[in-house]
Recover the amino acids of this structure.
C-alpha cells in the first residue's frame, strides 16, 4: 500500500489544474515570494545565471519571476501535466519530467530551488537530497528551499485528498547543509511576509 508521501505525485497529476488555479493572482502582480526570490537572485553572480527549479509546478509564479530577471531556467517536475503547462507558458526554457530524488543532469547550476516541493518528501528522502543538491551546485551556488518549522509530519488536503508534508528540525537541516558544503545565509521560521513559510537560503562555500 502506498504511503501518504508516495501518493504525492499522483495527487498533483490528478489535480494539476486545481493547484494552478490557486495562484491565479499571477501574472500581473508581484508574488508573495518576491522578497526571498530577490535575495536568492542577488547571490547569483552570473549576469544570466542558470537556475534549477526542483518541483517547478506550472512555472508560475516562481520560474516566471526569475526568467523575467534574466535567469535561464531548468525546471523539473514529476507531473507531466505541470511540465506541459511550463512549456506553453515559458517557451525557450528547459523543462523535464523527473523525480528530484533520482536526479542526475550531469551539469551544475548557479542556483537551485526546491520551493514548496522539498517538504513533500519523507524525512529520509529529504536527508538523501542534500548530496543531490551538492552535485548540481556550481561554485558559490545559492540553494533555497522551504520546510516546516520543526521535526514532524503535517497533513493538508488538495481537493479533499490527503496532502503530505514533512520536516526535519532546524539543527538537522543546518548539519546536512554544512556536511554538503553549504553555509546558511538566511533562515526564517513561519515568515509572516511569505504566507507563513519556513525558508532556508544557503550558499556553497
Amino acid at each position: 500500500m502506498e504511503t501518504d508521501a508516495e501518493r504525492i505525485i499522483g495527487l498533483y497529476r490528478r489535480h494539476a489544474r486545481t493547484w494552478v488555479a490557486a495562484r491565479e493572482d499571477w501574472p500581473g502582480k508581484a508574488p508573495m515570494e518576491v522578497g526571498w526570490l530577490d535575495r536568492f537572485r542577488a547571490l547569483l553572480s552570473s549576469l544570466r545565471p542558470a537556475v534549477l527549479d526542483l518541483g517547478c509546478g506550472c512555472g508560475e509564479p516562481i520560474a516566471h519571476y526569475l526568467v523575467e530577471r534574466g535567469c535561464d531556467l531548468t525546471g523539473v517536475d514529476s507531473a507531466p501535466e505541470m511540465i506541459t503547462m511550463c512549456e506553453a507558458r515559458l517557451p525557450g526554457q528547459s523543462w523535464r519530467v523527473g523525480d528530484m530524488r533520482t536526479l542526475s543532469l550531469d551539469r551544475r547550476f548557479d542556483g537551485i530551488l526546491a520551493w514548496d516541493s522539498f517538504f513533500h518528501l519523507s524525512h529520509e528522502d529529504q536527508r538523501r537530497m542534500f548530496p543531490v543538491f551538492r552535485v548540481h551546485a556550481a561554485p558559490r551556488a545559492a540553494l533555497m528551499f522551504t520546510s516546516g518549522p520543526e521535526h514532524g509530519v503535517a497533513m493538508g488536503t488538495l481537493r479533499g485528498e490527503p496532502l503530505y508534508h514533512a520536516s526535519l528540525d532546524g539543527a538537522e537541516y543546518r548539519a546536512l547543509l554544512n556536511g554538503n558544503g553549504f553555509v546558511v545565509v538566511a533562515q526564517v521560521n513561519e515568515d509572516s511576509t511569505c504566507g507563513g513559510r519556513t525558508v532556508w537560503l544557503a550558499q556553497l562555500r
In short: Helices lie at 8-14, 16-21, 34-42, 62-68, 80-89, 123-135, 170-179. The chain has seven helices and nine strands. Residues 8-204 form a domain with the Rossmann fold fold (CATH 3.40.50.150).
